[in-house]
Design goal:
Elements (H helix, E strand, L loop, with lengths): L2 H8 L4 H21 L7 H30 L8 H23 L4 H10 L1 H18 L3 H7 L1 H8 L1 H18 L5 H21 L2 H5 L3
Helix pairs in contact: 2-3, 2-4, 3-4, 3-9, 3-10, 4-6, 5-6, 6-9, 7-8, 9-10
């Protein structure tokens, strides 16, 4: 199948709904596992951990869209970047809500104390806060209202979110001296950001709004 045919296939109207269904599968699987008591010996820890790791996976996949488009010349891939970005935010929100509910019982004072006391919680919260305006402006009317340049400048925050997410994951795993997964995620992010640095002629070029 040549690139033209693949691009035509990517632009078919039924593909985007299918992408949304695929994005929902991990969350639905976790919900079913929770409802059927199949999350293991520590259901709360499992739910918090899985939603957090899926957040990173979706974010990395979102960041991979642009390099993949350039390498494969499949412009149709861009059609799905925003959907993956919104999916990332939804999983990040589920991650936070799982922590706030199952670990802290939605007691705000306990959550605030935890944020102040534990660096990895603080970093995760900052990442979630930075993701929120990205999710709220992830539609065409927001681009028109803000103007393309301001919208692009705002969405450069995704790089900070990715680095903070990785740091959050690192600090969480380092407490258990379990860093094997961290290095895998770090290596993938290094490739995704490194490609942008090289492609745009340096870090400042990557951050510049054109």
């Amino acid at each position: 199948m040549n690139r033209l045919l693949i691009n035509q296939w990517l632009l078919k109207p039924w593909i985007k709904p299918l992408v949304w269904v695929v994005c929902a599968v991990p969350a639905v699987a976790l919900l079913v596992a929770a409802a059927t008591d199949n999350l293991g010996a520590n259901p709360a820890e499992k739910l918090i951990r899985e939603t957090g790791e899926w957040t990173l996976r979706w974010l990395w996949l979102t960041l991979a869209i642009t390099p993949l488009r350039e390498v494969t010349s499949l412009a149709g891939l861009l059609r799905y970047r925003r959907a993956l970005g919104v999916t990332t935010f939804v999983y990040a929100l589920l991650h936070f809500l799982s922590y706030a509910w199952l670990d802290k019982g939605f007691v705000v004072d306990d959550i605030v104390r935890d944020v102040i006391k534990r660096n990895f919680i603080l970093v995760g919260m900052v990442a979630l806060v930075l993701m929120t305006p990205l999710a709220l402006t992830s539609f065409n009317r927001a681009i028109k209202a803000m103007g393309a340049k301001r919208w692009q400048a705002l969405h450069k925050l995704v790089y900070a979110v990715a680095l903070l997410g990785l740091l959050h994951f690192y600090w969480k795993k380092s407490a258990k001296n379990d860093l094997n997964e961290v290095w895998v995620y770090a290596a993938i992010l290094a490739v995704l950001l490194g490609w942008r640095v090289v492609r745009q002629g340096g870090v400042m070029g990557m951050l510049r709004v054109r």
